[in-house]
Amino acid sequence: MKSIHLKGVHINEQTMNTVSVAIKKNMTLQAIILEDAGITDEGALSLSIGLQSNTLIHSLSLPRNQLTSAGLEHIIDCLDVNQNLTDLDLRDNLITDIPSSLNTYLQTETSSIRSLLLNGNPLQARSVAQLLSSLSQNTSVLQLGVKLVRHYIVTILRCLSINHCFNHSRVNIGIR
After folding, report:
1. pLDDT tier at 163 (50, 70, 90 boundaries)?
2. pTM of the prediction?
């Protein structure tokens, strides 16, 4: 099996632990897609543990779940070990702040993330500005997805003009 794709199936913490064990054991697995599965921060912790053991997985897609900034922090924890994880889709969750550990990771030479999709999260403008600043030195991220409300644009534009971010990246910033 090369991928796990569950959409609209509620996964409780016990089931998430079972999924984590399966991820550890299946060394042919390349992609995990758990969309609209009710995954919480605790589920993200279980998933992160599995991703630390199986470093062959390159794509993690968790759109429309219950993840907060703490859940994102759990996912980031596996990135130092799993350097094959290149595509991270966390659209439409409950993430308000980008953890400093993600900003630090994106500034390292070992950063492997190519695609980081955060569209539909209630991200704070300052947090997005810090993310953009972190990416100003990054050469791995090719696609970033965020969606902002109009009054955040001044903060973001300040970041872009100060740091001259994204002269090498494809940026997808939606404005509503």
Report:
1. very low
2. 0.86
